[in-house]
Design brief:
Elements lengths: L12 H14 L15 E5 L2 E4 L4 E4 L2 H4 L8 H14 L9 H13 L6 E5 L2 H16 L3 E5 L8 H6 L15 E4 L14 H19 L4 E7 L14 H12 L2 E5 L23 E4 L11 E5 L1 H6 L15 H16 L2 H23 L3 E7 L2 E9 L4 E2 L11 H12 L2 E2 L1 E3 L2 E4 L7 H19 L4
Parallel strand pairs: 3-14, 5-6, 5-7, 7-8, 8-9
Antiparallel strand pairs: 1-2, 2-3, 4-10, 9-10, 11-12, 12-13, 12-16, 15-16
Helix pairs in contact: 3-10, 4-10, 7-8, 11-13, 12-13
């Protein structure tokens, strides 16, 4: 494992002020009310850390947006991008080029089952768009089932598939999407007492949904293997296998969204490997090259690939399989192999993050549940452990979100940049985080959770 030794931050407040002024004058930020945000001006990043122009350094427990799986500025990947830029900086997607071919080969070697054909996109949302298009064309059906408590991206189809409030302003009733409840024992919609009950009842609910929607009208069921932004809810044993069986029985395409959970995040190359399930289509992005250059894709089964053997697939992107992005993917996968990054994520989850987070839960009344795998964890924060009332209401903002805002501010004050969403904080550091760095993050969380505790009853 390459040790992280980030450079000391260079203090230059004037440069930071200039960056901030230009940002506020010209950059339109996503998911934000433009006049209510105050983005941090970042001066640099390395390994698991980044820093601002005032010399403040933060341990990044968000991995960017859960994508810097090998940390920031890994020298091997940076060098690979530089080398590719000098050799062939760009080329159209209709041609065979070395970086693209090699990236596809390395990805296909690691995907489960016969997912051996790779359609490249620029990111995860486009991967979902194309996976759904493939499923609809393959089956000749239109409707797609997706779960509440999910996030699949911000493009047109992907946002309509999403099961959280970010979908609401862009809802389109003609999109052919039907939502259902996936299992989540801690806040069970099925009043289950055990994982086995939750699994059985969730599968029956899915069967009932198909019965009332008409199984013969359903092109695909899409699930995040382990939902990410919505709360890192690991499915109970048998659930994904049950969905696979339902899809097989009704001729429905099974799509697993591994955009966030893939490429080592859960301590295996793909989260599906934990459950011995092979989907028909699998989307990926983020960790495939640690986000160094935008890249995503769809891994395609032999059966679906055969649909387009003599029939043109009606989709494509100007920058699909961009040489710089693919060179970054090749280097990233090699780094993950050489430095045993996937194994490190599994070990850190089992020996440091999991036990450490559960110990925090034992001591802090604000922590209702700890759940996760590898370098992929969530703390469900509550006002009361007995009632499980969330620390803030669903989709809270403004004053209603004050407890989570106070928690986040306390974490940052102690040098930790936290992932905060609704009533949760996620511990999602780089997959090559060291034991010392993970413990540093746990110590900062300990302090910040004491602030959250003040809002419990």
């Amino acid at each position: 494992m390459t040790p992280h030794a980030p450079h000391a931050p260079h203090v230059d407040p004037a440069a930071g002020a200039a960056v901030k002024a230009a940002d506020r004058a010209h950059v339109f930020h996503s998911w934000s009310a433009q006049g209510l945000i105050d983005p941090l001006a970042v001066a640099g990043a390395e390994g698991a850390y980044f820093w601002d122009y005032d010399g403040n350094r933060y341990l990044d427990f968000t991995s960017g947006l859960v994508y810097t799986n090998i940390g920031y500025q890994h020298p091997t990947v940076v060098a690979a991008i530089q080398e590719q830029a000098g050799k062939l900086a760009t080329f159209a997607p209709a041609f065979a080029i070395e970086a693209r071919s090699e990236a596809a080969r390395l990805i296909a070697e690691r995907t489960p089952g016969d997912l051996d054909k790779i359609f490249f996109t620029n990111g995860g949302a486009e991967a979902v768009e194309n996976a759904v298009r493939m499923a609809r064309l393959h089956t000749g059906r239109t409707k797609v089932l997706s779960a509440y408590r999910s996030y699949h991206g911000a493009t047109s189809t992907a946002i309509n598939l999403t099961g959280d409030p970010r979908r609401w302003p862009s809802d389109n009733g003609s999109a052919g999407v039907v939502r259902f409840w996936a299992p989540f024992l801690y806040r069970s919609p099925f009043h289950s007492a055990t994982e086995a009950e939750e699994c059985a009842r969730a599968l029956q609910h899915l069967e009932d949904t198909l019965a009332f929607e008409g199984a013969a009208t359903i092109a695909a069921i899409i699930l995040e293997t382990i939902p990410g932004t919505a709360g890192i809810m690991t499915p109970p044993p048998g659930y994904l296998a049950g969905v696979r069986e339902i899809c097989d029985r009704y001729g429905i395409v099974f799509i697993l969204d591994e955009v966030m959970a893939g490429f080592g995040r859960t301590g295996k190359w793909f989260a599906a490997d934990h459950f011995d399930v092979v989907p028909d289509l699998m989307t990926f992005a983020k960790g495939v090259n640690s986000g160094y250059v935008p890249l995503g894709g769809v891994a395609i089964s032999a059966e679906i690939a055969a649909t387009f053997e003599t029939r043109a697939y009606p989709g494509g992107l100007t920058y699909s399989g961009h040489p710089l992005a693919c060179a970054a993917a090749v280097a990233t996968i090699q780094v993950m192999e050489d430095e045993k990054v996937v194994e490190n994520a599994a070990r850190i989850g089992e020996t440091v993050l999991g036990p450490g987070l559960r110990e925090l839960a034992d001591r802090h009344p604000s922590v209702g549940e700890v759940r996760g795998l590898g370098a992929f964890w969530a703390l469900d924060l509550v006002r009361n452990k007995e009632t499980r009332e969330p620390l803030v209401p669903y989709n809270a903002s403004g004053e209603a979100n004050a407890p989570m805002a106070a928690f986040g501010a306390a974490a940052k004050k102690n040098g930790l940049w936290p992932f905060v969403n609704m009533n949760r904080t996620h511990a999602v550091p780089a997959c090559n985080v060291t034991e010392a760095e993970a413990k540093e993050g746990l110590a900062a969380l300990d302090v910040a959770l004491s602030v959250a505790d003040e809002y419990t009853v």
